[in-house]
Amino acid sequence: MTGQPQSLKAAVDQLQTELGYRFRNPALLRRALTHPSYVNEHPEEEIRHNQRLEFLGDAVIDFIAAAWVYQRYADFAEGRMTRLRAALVRTETLADLARGLGIGEALRLGHGEEEAGGRERDPNLCDAFEAVAGAVYLDGGMEAVRELVEPLLGPLARTTLDRAADQDPKSLLQEWSQAERKVTPRYRIVAERGPDHAKTFEAQVLLGDQVVGYGSGRSKQAAEQDAAEAALQVLVQSS
What we know:
- This protein is 64% helix and 10% strand.
- By secondary structure, it is mainly alpha-helical.
- The chain folds into 2 domains: 6-164, Ribonuclease iii, N-terminal Endonuclease Domain, Chain A; 169-238, Double Stranded RNA Binding Domain, CATH 3.30.160.20.
- A hairpin with a 2-residue loop joins strand 2 (200-207) and strand 3 (210-217).
């Protein structure tokens, strides 16, 4: 890691300790920790940023998480497995894992990104975690990534399932849609039927401009919950 400030080099060394993995090719780790802003500000170094490794790591983590959920929760239906996997690999979750490992301290950032608090931004940390996973995959293979990722999944899954037990369909749909589609659901009441003392409301839920569920209920809130439940049943089966 020549050319790095001593504090940054120490952070990279500590990161390898936290990962429990020592790179045979340290250049892979250096690339995984290099934000595009650093490359833009240091063209003389002829280095690459971490976005290609992030692409690879995203796929590797997604597969490992899906396989782990499948094996650990044999009684879960497809929809519940999909929601759990989505929660485990969402941006905020991976960013928190990155913080726990000290990835933020080891990032190479451009001055502007540094000044803007880039070491703590969820997208940067998530991308870097995925890039590190991609680098581990290239350096040591799938088993090395599995040994890194799987121990982190158990506590996350328990927390996620405990929280989900108390969540209503609207909350679950919002969590799924933000993880999978990067959008927040919108609801609209499209009809009201019956007399004032016994009204029935009909609702739609949309992701972007797409209507993904319909529901009805004796209140607007109940109709929205019903629409969210219907959307979850369709979306998790098709994802």
